[in-house]
Every structure is written in C-alpha cells, then in structure tokens.
C-alpha cells in the first residue's frame, strides 16, 4: 500500500499569525479545519494528507491555538473506535489516547493491574482537568511541569503509535523528545500507552510543582531496581535508574543517582540550584518512604 | 456554519455554529446561556465549566463539535421547576459566593463531584473545588455550600429563608454583569499593545487595517492629540489614551480598532505596522533612581496635587522618574531619636500582585444625541462621567454612565481605564462599540504597588515606641493612575496603630517601565502593615519582649486621636489582639511532626484608615403606596454585599422586611451622586447617606400620615407598610389612595454625607473610621525544602455592628486568602523588566487547596463605629496583617526573618542556609 502524501496545496508549515501582546485567547485563534475520524487508520490518513494534528481532550491544543499559531487542520479522536478503551495485552495495560486521567485512575483494570500508579494518578491535576484531559495529551503537550511523563517514565511505560507511513512503532516514554526536538514521535499517532503490569512500589512528590516533581519506583522482579524521575527542570523528565541491594541510606542513594543532574533549563523564578537540590531531597524522602 | 445538535439542559437543541467554534461561545451565543462566561480563556479558572454527559468540561477549551449528540448541562439546567435546585439552594443558604462570576462553574463542579461522592468530607470537598478559582470568598463558604448541597441531596430540609433576587440570579445563571450585556448592532474593539517596555514610536501605519473589510474605525496617538485632554489619571494625568510618541511598558496601547466582530478587530491589529525605536528599559526602583537613568517622561505631566493638612508636604514630580513625594512629620524626630535607648533600622520589600477579577474589564459605549451612553464594569460611574466629559470635550449632561454589578474588582476597576478610548471608538465608528479585554490584558493594565520600605524606629528601654523614620519607595510603574494617593496612604499608615511622640515619613512613587500600579485592596496599607508589623516583632525579639506585650504597651486606646488633629480610634485594639491571641493559643507551642519541620506562631495588627478622604455621597429612598422601598445610590456592588447592606439599612429605618426593598440600577442620569466605590466607604459613608435618606422619607410619610390621621407625627410608627398610631394600624396604601386617588403616589427622601475638610488633619479631612486586622498565624516550616505550611490562621476585623454578618465574614476570609497568597507565592514576576508570568496559566492564584488547615475569620462588633447603626466596613481589612503574621511565625519557628515577599520555599531555604553559616545573633544597637 503506497504511503499517503500530503496534499501539495497545503502549507508546508502550520499557521502562525503575528503575535499580539495580550491577545492570547479564543479570538486570536487562526482559522483551522476540524475533521473527525472513526478509526486510527482514518485519523492517521488525515494527519498525513492534511498535516492534521490529533485532538484528544483538546485543552493544550486549543490553548496553543489561542496564541495565534497552530495547525491548519485538526483531527478529533473522540469518535475513533477503541480510542477510549483500557485493555490488557501481552501482560501490559494499554491506554487508548482518549483515556482521561480520571478514566485511568478509576478504572478497575488499572486499580487491579497497576494499583500504585492508579492511586498516584488520582492525585494529579484537578477534578475538571481529570475529567477532560487525556493522559496521551498530557504526555505529548511538551509542558515541562506536566506529570504524565514523570510517572510513566518511572514505571517504564511506552507508546504504541502509527508512523506517518502507517507502520507501527513503539517508543519508551523515558526516551521521548520534545515537540520541537529531534528525538520525537510527535508526527506519529499514538494508539496506546503501554504500561507494564510489573509489580512495583511507587512514590511521588508533587508538593513543589511547578518547580519540580519527583517520582521513585522500586521493582523487584529480577533485581531490585530503583528509578528516580525528576520533572519540571527540563523539557522532558530526567530519568535515573540503578540496581540496588538495599535502601538503607536513601539520602546517599538519591545524592549519588542525581549527582550529575544537568542544570535546569526550564526558567524558574527562584534561587539558583534550588530545584536541583530539592530533587535530591524529595528523592531521598521518597526512597525512605519505599524503604518503610 | 453547520448545524450542531445536542441536548441542552435536558431539551434537544440544534444551533447554527462554526464547526471550529468553542463550546463557550456557542453556549453563551446562539444557545442563549449567558452563565457560560469566559474569564481566563485559558482553561485555568473554571468559570466557564459546564457538564458534558455529566462530567465537568472547560467550555473555553472545548470544541463545540465535541458536544455533538451529547448532553450539555449549564447552571440553568440545575433548576427545578424554575426554582434553584439543591446545589443552587445550598450555595444560597451557605452564601457560597460574592460577586458571582465563578458561581455557575463552581455549582456545576459541585454537581459533578457530588454525583460521585454523595457524602464527602470537607477535605474531599476542598480538593474538588480546588479545580476552580474564586477570587472573592476565600473558599470557606463554598466548601460549606457543597457540604450543605450534599445534605440537601440526601434529603435534608432546605432553609425556610427566602432567597434574594440577586442570589437567585447568580446561582441560576441569569445575565447580571456588563460582560453579559448584548446590545444590538455592536462593534467589537481591540487594542494593539506595545511589545517593548520602553521605546519611541516613530510611525504607526494603519492603511492596511483601515482597508480590511469590516473595520469601522482605527485610532492612533495622532487622533488622541486632537482631544481637549488626551491623558487621564487620578491627580497626575499622565496616561495617554493611546501612546503618542513613546511606549512606557509592555502592553501600553498604541492603536485601537473597532470592527464588526472580535476576530476582524484582531485581524486588523495584525495589519497595523509600528516603527519602534527601543529605549533602555527602566525596570526597577534602583534603575529608575540611578544617576543618569533614562527619564521616562521628558517634562511635567498635567494634573495637580490637592491640598493636604497639618504636618504634610507634597511634591509633584520632584526628581527624575519620581512621580510624587509625600512627607508627613509629627513632633521632633531628631530629639526623640537622640534620647532613645534603642534604634532599629530594617528594610522590607513587597511584591506586587495582579487583581485577577474574573469578569474582564469591559466597556460598551454607544453614541447618543450629542454624546454617549456607556456601560462599564467600573467602580466609579460619576468619576467616569467627569473624566469622559473632560477628555472628549463633551457636555456633562451628554454623558450617561450605567453600571451593573461587577464580577470582582479589588481595585482593578476603579477610576478611569479603557472607557475613554472605547467612547472615542464609538464616536468614530458611529455605532456602539464593546471593548472587553482579556485577563492577559488586564494583567498588563494595572497592578498592586511593589515597593521598598526602610523603617528606623526609636524605642525606650521598656519597649515604648518613641519615634519612627520611614522611607517608602513604591514602584508606580509607567503611569500615575492612583499612585499618588496610594503613597499618601502608605506613608500615613506606616506608623501602625501605635502611639508615637514623633514621626518623619517620606513616601515616594517611582516611575518604572512596568505595568502601571494603582488601587489594590489595602491601598498602601498592605505594604505599610507588612513592614511595620514585621519590624514590631523583630524589635520585640531583639529586646526579649513578648511580641504581644510590646504591642499592648504601645497600642492606641479607643477615643485617642490616631495622630494629632485626626479622628479618634474607634476600636479596641487591645481587646482584638487578646481575642486573636487566645484563638491561636499564643504562648503554647505544639510539637512538630518530625525533626525536619518546626512550628511557630506569629501575631500582627494590620491597620489602615478607611472611608476615603473628604468623601461626599448621596442617596435616595422611595417608598411606594404599598410600603415597598427602592434605594438609589451609586456604590457599585462587586460582591462585597453593598446592595444587601443598603436594603437592610432601609428596612431597619422603615420597619420593613429587606426583601421588600429593591436596589435601583446605577445610571448617572438617575442615581444619587457618589464619589465612587473606594476605600471601604460603602458601609460608613454611602450607607450613612442611605440611612439618612430612609429617615427623610420616613419623616415625610409620618408628616403625611399625621395630617391624614390627625396624629402627631412623633407618635407614629411604621411596620411593613402600615402606620401605627397608638393601637390603630392603618395601611399606608389606604391613606395614599384616600388622598392621592387611584393613580397612587410615592414618597421620596434624600440623604447625604460630606466629610468636611479640616486642615488640622494630615490628609486634610478627618479619617472616617479605622480598620484593624488582628491576625494570628501558626506555621510549620520544612527545614529541608523551605516550604511553609500555614496550619492555623486567625484573622479578625471590627465591623462595629455587622449589618450583614455573612458578607462581613466573607470579606474577611476573601481578603485573608489574598494576603496569604501574597505571603507565600503570589506575585507578578519581573526579571530584567520583563514580566515572566503575565498569563493566567503562569500566574498562580490561590485555590481552595491553599487554605490553611484551620481558618478562623472572626467578626468582632466592638460597637464604636460612626457609620449607620454603628457599622463599619471591613472589605480591605483581611489582607492587611496576614503577611507579617506569617513572617513573624516563620521566625518563631526557625529563627530566620523573611523581609521580602513572598516567602517562597527557595527564599526560606536560602535564609535558613544563611543562618546556618552565620549563627551569631543580631546585636541590639
């Protein structure tokens, strides 16, 4: 089957209007066309042919349009068959791209298979955003303070997607790039978030958001492995993993794993190095919590 | 356009809509649901929350197409047989709202929450409503409302108390705000704003914008120069309607457009070309005051400083980049300092907040006859009429200003703002023009004053205060607005509620190339109280005195003049302090939860004068033949409860159920005059005028009834429209119909209040009343992260006599939340002159989850007020003392003093680090 090609009349780049100071808002949205798709294949085809961006919950995409810039075409995933389902395959939990924060956190399957993650997920965002916002949208919004990437990286989740040529691909969440970076699956259509149902212990501290948040996961399937994920300092979370024999000295372990934490690139209004220092403090506390 | 079908509030509905339209616009527009109001337009505040298939959705961030075939519920859909449903009734019973802008969204959020959590705890409720922003209430009343709603849904009996019309309107989604107003054939206005903090405007080319179909008018600085008075501001009128040759802050308006719709207006803005020549920004106080600093203005500005009283000197534009200087001297400071046992000098820095009122600043101007008819979300209809008359050169009678209730203000909507440029657009377009700015633009329009305050305090060995020297520098931003008056107030208040032998205070407004600063709840008192109450505590600790005791030794007593020549203290400051100290458990120390956290307590007495300067207010009360009353005055209701206050005053005077008293809409052609809704003057000044008007109409009724009944008017009484003379009860209506005939009649009474000028008082008129805010805070400080948690906040204010107790409590709580947010995190974050958090998504506002674990708002009725029936206002009180109480508690907990707001975790940790490196105690001078 030949690879679909973009329509030659379409602009090579998304629409971008000149910035108007203070006018970010719905009246500043550039003209765009909305498409609806009934299947992932149709959505993929529209993305390729029209250079359309997929819209799930829509919060971030629409707010991006309010800056006056954004895609000229949008394809709604809302009516895509299976997009909102939570399924189990190959021992993993598969979350469709329309699965909301609330849908995941309250799902019986999630609570049974990944109880620690589901429990933590009930704490993120707020009632309104949890009902409307999707996990996939949160992950792909490219917002440094968003939390899905931190938590999903901690549990070693990955994304199943359809590439522009229609082929399937899989990306570890921990290896995701940024919407504008080189290592990016952002021209892919995410068809599922794949969460391993590996027994693990998970602890998460979001008390210093948006400055930073830290997740720590401990798995014991083969070897005792600790994952520390720090979000908010960089466009994508920083992930540190190590095999450990015990958690007797959580402060030392956190300091060791985060010793080479690169200096934050996301702007912060506060004192220099505060966030780097707090990453170790919060990680040590979470490790101590898991050790208990 | 396409057809969009869905179930709206239980009824199938099909509307014509652009497929790319947002749900909020479709619901508020063709679907006819004005309660779906966009506030932040960023999905942050939740004011536009609706339910889609029973789940909350942010209508400003949802495509209308997503609702196709689904069930959409707005707050109107929660009514039962046209009456408020259980959640709406609960919000009414618990008074879970003030201005009402967030109310529809909050109610729908609660509806969705309770559907899944029918018997919630307060903690669960707090988390749930933490999704949406309320800038007024402080959230406690909303929590009460949701808990009450849960009870009603479980079958509890509703309160028999009838709901007021405004309560029903706010909870069921009726149009009540200017932003809801839709006039026919109205064009949309928009402003092109400067991207530069400081630049010369070399050229503005508008030809392409003017040629765009649908564009009706384009204005630039050249049009402004042709006006009789092209600038505005309180006292100093230095702000042009549009930049003429220079822009002075990011967001400074450069051009204005009126077009057939909002999208066309913005498209036109993009076609306007501006040649800027950037100039060095003047970002900070130090930048502005440095030798050789670039001047932000080249010459003197129009306007004048009004007379002041004893001990005060003022200067307009006394130095480069200094807008104003206020100096107040009492006694001989040199002599007092010379004999002091101790002198302490400390410097404090205050941050600035944005108002974040949820209703946008919106004006509609419509040409009418020789002039204009204007609707504006503004606190000052008569001042607005005067400003527009002067600026545009119109006759005063030709300018008619109408004001509806405001969806929050907090100072943002005081004095003249965007009304003159809207009026000019309307005159040029020859049709009605609506200018509704976004919350992003509001942030670029006005802010609170940041500042630096250095206090030197001379103290006797026994802790008695002798004298204080203070230097206050307020960052006024680019234009004057109300800055000069704010400087007056900050300077006059910095001594706090204490007795001094001498004071020497200088307060300056410094111009910078940042957002103009102006009125903000507290109006200089917040800044002064933070510095003063922090230093009082620091002095106590340095001298080894109990911080409560040093205050007690120095507090002014009831009846004692605040300063020579001014009015007497009308509250019992010591009693208020004792009440708060008892509630916070002063002197007791609870154990900390772990080694890494420490607990501490702090006290403060925020203090300000209130009621405005030399104010004048009028009121009119009409009584119908039925005995019902209508009160007319120009205090704008913005959630503070002014209308209900006036109803209760009238009801009390006329022996009438307040439910039978209506509040007339504000219209400068009809309404009794008022100098504006400022300085918490509604209760004490306008309320007193209302009381006098009610008494006047009662006198007229008694005179009339006395004549008709052959009775002495002094022997008559009035109750629910019936005249009582001895044991005889005669309906007023019968007397009216007997005398005036079947066409009936009304009685009218007028009242007014003028605070007479008195040069013996420092501010040229005695202060109307005094507004204390006693605060106790208990905090927990995490030594490893610097996070400060407020475990218990007690905040008290003196209402004199609380006419509307629930409104008084709500005002105290709401103001306290603003003060707490300023203490802990809320600020406009400038770096190198660039505002880094100028959007609702990046500017952090307090949420329900930011409340202290225990939060006591205490309404004291000390009975010394000089307002109607002894009442005093409290609207600004709650914000005054919170930050200093928290700072004092932090020092009590971990021994470090934070002198700059806000006390963010990184700052607290830096202070702890500094203390660890330099553990030596400060020496007493």
UniProtKB/TrEMBL annotation, chain A:
InterPro entries: Diverse_Substr_Oxidored (IPR051312), FAD-bd_PCMH (IPR016166), FAD-bd_PCMH-like_sf (IPR036318), FAD-bd_PCMH_sub1 (IPR016167), FAD-bd_PCMH_sub2 (IPR016169), Mopterin_DH_FAD-bd (IPR002346). Keywords: FAD, Flavoprotein. Coiled coil: none annotated. GO terms for molecular function: FAD binding; oxidoreductase activity. The keyword Flavoprotein applies. It comes from the Bacteria. Signal peptide: none annotated. Pfam families: FAD_binding_5 (PF00941). The keyword Flavoprotein applies. Residues 27-200 form the FAD-binding PCMH-type domain. This is FAD binding domain-containing protein. It comes from Acuticoccus mangrovi.
TrEMBL record, chain B:
Its EC number is 1.3.5.1. CDD domains: fer2. It is an enzyme of class 1 (oxidoreductase). Residues 2-78 form the 2Fe-2S ferredoxin-type domain. Signal peptide: none annotated. InterPro entries: 2Fe-2S-bd, 2Fe-2S-bd_dom_sf, 2Fe-2S_ferredoxin-like_sf, 2Fe-2S_ferredoxin-type, 2Fe2S_fd_BS, Ald_Oxase/Xan_DH_a/b, Ald_Oxase/Xan_DH_a/b_sf, Ald_Oxase/xanthine_DH-like. SMART domains: Ald_Xan_dh_C (SM01008). The keyword Manganese does not apply. Belongs to the xanthine dehydrogenase family. Belongs to the succinate dehydrogenase/fumarate reductase iron-sulfur protein family. PANTHER family: XANTHINE DEHYDROGENASE, XANTHINE DEHYDROGENASE SUBUNIT D-RELATED. This is succinate dehydrogenase. It comes from Acuticoccus mangrovi.
């Amino acid at each position: 089957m030949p690879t679909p090609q973009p329509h030659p009349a379409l602009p090579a780049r998304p629409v971008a209007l000149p910035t108007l100071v203070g006018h970010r808002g719905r009246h500043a949205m550039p003209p765009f066309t909305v498409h609806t798709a009934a299947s992932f294949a149709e959505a993929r085809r529209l993305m390729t042919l029209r250079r359309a961006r997929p819209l799930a919950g829509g919060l971030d995409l629409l707010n991006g349009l309010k800056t006056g810039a954004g895609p000229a075409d949008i394809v709604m995933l809302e009516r895509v068959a299976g997009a909102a389902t939570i399924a189990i395959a190959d021992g993993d939990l598969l979350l469709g791209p329309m699965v909301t924060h609330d849908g995941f956190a309250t799902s019986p399957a999630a609570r049974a298979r990944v109880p620690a993650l589901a429990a933590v997920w009930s704490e993120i965002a707020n009632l309104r955003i949890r009902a409307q916002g999707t996990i996939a949208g949160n992950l792909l919004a490219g917002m440094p303070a968003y939390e899905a990437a931190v938590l999903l990286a901690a549990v070693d989740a990955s994304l199943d997607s359809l590439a522009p040529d229609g082929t399937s691909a899989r990306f570890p969440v921990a290896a995701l790039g940024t919407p504008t970076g080189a290592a990016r699956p952002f021209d892919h259509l995410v068809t599922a978030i794949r969460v391993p149902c590996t027994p693990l212990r998970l602890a998460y501290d979001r008390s210093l958001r948006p400055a930073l948040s830290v997740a720590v996961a401990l798995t014991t399937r083969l070897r005792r492995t600790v994952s520390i994920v720090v979000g908010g300092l960089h466009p994508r979370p920083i992930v540190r993993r190590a095999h450990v024999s015990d958690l007797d000295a959580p402060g030392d372990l956190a300091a060791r794993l985060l010793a080479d934490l690169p200096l934050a690139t996301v702007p912060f209004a506060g004192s220099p190095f505060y966030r780097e220092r707090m990453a170790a403090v919060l990680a040590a506390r979470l490790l101590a919590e898991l050790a208990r | 356009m396409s057809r969009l079908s869905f179930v709206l509030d239980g009824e199938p509905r099909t509307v014509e809509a652009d497929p790319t339209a947002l749900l909020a616009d479709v619901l508020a527009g063709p679907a006819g649901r004005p309660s779906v109001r966009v506030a932040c337009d960023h999905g942050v505040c939740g004011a536009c929350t609706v339910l889609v298939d029973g789940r909350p959705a942010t209508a400003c961030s949802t495509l209308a197409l997503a609702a196709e075939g689904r069930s959409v519920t707005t707050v109107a859909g929660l009514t039962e047989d046209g009456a408020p449903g259980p959640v709406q009734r609960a919000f009414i019973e618990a008074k879970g709202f003030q201005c009402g802008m967030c109310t529809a969204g909050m109610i729908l959020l609660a509806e969705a929450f309770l559907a899944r959590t029918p018997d919630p705890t307060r903690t669960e409720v707090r988390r749930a409503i933490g999704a949406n922003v309320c800038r007024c209430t402080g959230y406690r009343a909303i929590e009460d409302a949701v808990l009450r709603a849960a009870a009603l849904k479980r079958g509890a009996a509703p309160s028999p108390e009838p709901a007021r019309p405004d309560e029903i309107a706010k909870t069921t989604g009726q149009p009540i705000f200017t932003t809801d107003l839709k006039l026919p054939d109205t064009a949309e206005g928009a402003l092109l704003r400067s991207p530069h903090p400081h630049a010369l405007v070399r050229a503005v080319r508008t030809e392409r914008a003017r040629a765009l179909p649908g564009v009706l008018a384009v204005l630039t600085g050249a049009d402004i120069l042709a006006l009789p008075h092209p600038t505005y501001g309180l006292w100093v009128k230095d702000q042009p309607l549009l930049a003429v040759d220079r822009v002075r802050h990011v967001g400074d308006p450069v051009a204005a457009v009126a077009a057939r719709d909002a999208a066309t207006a913005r498209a036109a803005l993009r076609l306007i070309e501006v040649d800027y020549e950037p100039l060095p920004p003047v970002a900070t106080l130090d930048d502005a005051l440095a030798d050789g600093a670039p001047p932000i203005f080249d010459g003197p500005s129009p306007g004048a400083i009004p007379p002041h009283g004893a001990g005060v000197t003022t200067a307009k534009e006394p130095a480069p980049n200094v807008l104003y200087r206020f100096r107040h001297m009492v006694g001989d400071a040199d002599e007092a300092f010379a004999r002091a046992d101790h002198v302490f000098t400390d410097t404090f820095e205050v941050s600035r907040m944005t108002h974040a009122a949820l209703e946008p600043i919106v004006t509609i101007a419509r040409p009418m006859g020789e002039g204009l008819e204007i609707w504006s979300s503004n606190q000052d209809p008569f001042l607005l009429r005067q400003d527009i008359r002067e600026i545009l050169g119109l006759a005063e009678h030709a300018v008619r200003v109408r004001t509806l209730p405001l969806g929050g203000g907090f100072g943002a909507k005081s004095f003249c703002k965007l009304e003159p440029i809207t009026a000019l657009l309307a005159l040029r377009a020859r049709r009605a023009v609506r200018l509704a700015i976004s919350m992003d633009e509001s942030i670029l329009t006005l802010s609170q004053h940041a500042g630096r305050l250095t206090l030197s305090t001379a103290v006797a060995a026994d802790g008695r205060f002798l004298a204080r020297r203070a230097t206050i520098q307020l960052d006024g931003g680019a234009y004057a607005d109300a800055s000069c008056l704010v400087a007056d107030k900050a300077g006059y208040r910095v001594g706090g509620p204490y007795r001094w032998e001498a004071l020497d205070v200088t307060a300056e407004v410094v111009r910078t190339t940042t957002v103009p600063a102006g009125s903000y709840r507290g109006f200089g008192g917040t800044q002064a109280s933070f510095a003063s109450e922090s230093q009082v505590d620091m002095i106590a600790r340095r001298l080894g005195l109990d911080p409560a005791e040093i205050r007690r030794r120095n507090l002014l007593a009831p009846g004692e003049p605040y300063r020579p020549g001014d009015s007497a203290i009308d509250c019992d400051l010591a009693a208020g302090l004792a009440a708060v100290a008892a509630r916070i458990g002063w002197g007791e120390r609870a154990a900390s939860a772990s080694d890494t956290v420490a607990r501490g307590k702090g006290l403060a007495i925020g203090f300000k004068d209130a009621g405005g300067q030399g104010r004048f207010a009028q009121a009119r009360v009409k009584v119908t033949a039925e005995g019902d009353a209508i009160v007319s005055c120009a205090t704008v209701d913005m959630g503070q409860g002014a209308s209900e206050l006036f109803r209760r005053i009238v009801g009390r005077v006329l022996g009438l159920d307040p439910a039978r008293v209506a509040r007339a809409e504000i219209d400068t052609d009809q309404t009794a005059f008022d100098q504006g809704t400022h300085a918490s003057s509604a209760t004490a000044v306008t309320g007193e005028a209302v009381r006098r008007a009610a008494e006047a109409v009662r006198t007229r009724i008694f005179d009339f009834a006395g004549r008709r009944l052959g009775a002495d008017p002094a022997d008559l009484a009035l109750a629910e429209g019936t005249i009582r003379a001895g044991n005889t009860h005669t309906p007023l209506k019968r007397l009216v119909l007997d005398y005036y005939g079947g066409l009936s009649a009304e009685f009218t009474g007028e009242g007014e209040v003028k605070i007479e000028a008195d040069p013996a008082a420092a501010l040229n008129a005695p202060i109307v009343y005094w507004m204390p805010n006693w605060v106790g805070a208990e905090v927990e400080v995490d030594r490893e992260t610097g996070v400060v948690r407020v475990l218990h906040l007690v905040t008290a204010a003196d209402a004199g006599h609380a006419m509307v107790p629930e409104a008084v409590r709500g005002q105290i709580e709401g103001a306290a939340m603003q003060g707490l947010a300023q203490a802990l995190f809320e600020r406009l974050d400038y770096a190198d002159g660039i505002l880094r958090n100028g959007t609702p998504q990046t500017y952090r506002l307090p949420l329900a989850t930011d409340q202290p674990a225990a939060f006591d708002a205490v309404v004291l009725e000390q009975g010394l007020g000089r307002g109607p029936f002894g009442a005093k206002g409290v609207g600004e009180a709650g914000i005054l003392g919170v930050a200093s109480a928290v700072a004092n508690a932090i020092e009590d907990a971990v021994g470090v003093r934070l002198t700059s707001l806000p006390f963010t975790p990184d700052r607290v940790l830096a202070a702890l680090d500094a203390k660890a490196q330099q553990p030596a105690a400060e020496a007493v001078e």
